[in-house]
Amino acid sequence: MSSKVEVNKVVSVHYTGSYTDGEVFDTSEGREPLLFLVGHGQMITGFEQEMLGAKIGEKREFTLTPEKAYGMRDESAIQKVPKSQFPDDMQLVPGMVLGAQSDRGPVQFSVVSIDGDEVTVDFNHQMAGMTLRFSVEVVGIREATRDELAHGHAHGVGGINH
Ligand code: ZN
Questions:
Q1: How far is the CA of 40 from the centre of ligand 1 (A)?
Q2: pLDDT value for 151
Q3: Cα(150) to centroid(ligand 1), Å
């Protein structure tokens, strides 16, 4: 039986992601392959859709519009926050990316500007609004374990370990 990329399989891939101008923003080259559980929101939706049905050794190249990648930019995700909400000893610099806890789990945001006691932050994903290109090669496919299905992510080298 030949396995293919489908829901509830753990897939390992080598990949290179680039912007439309060709600049590479991330690659697994020189690292362990990326490991992910299909169908549990571990990857951006377009990435999984494009890889469904691929077999080991298969290489696919595709372009994802923002809706299938990190979404469109949302202007309401740019907010003003009192500086007092940040630790006293934190040096706030425009462009820095910080993490915070929200009621929906950890979120990332970037600092846009600091005006006196007011900090403008942007909760949009760094790659929101961008069209992304991927070149992906499937290097392994296996059944997910019971733990992985319960956790919603792949375990092991290149995956998540908790
Ligand atoms: Zn886990």
A1: 12
A2: 95
A3: 8
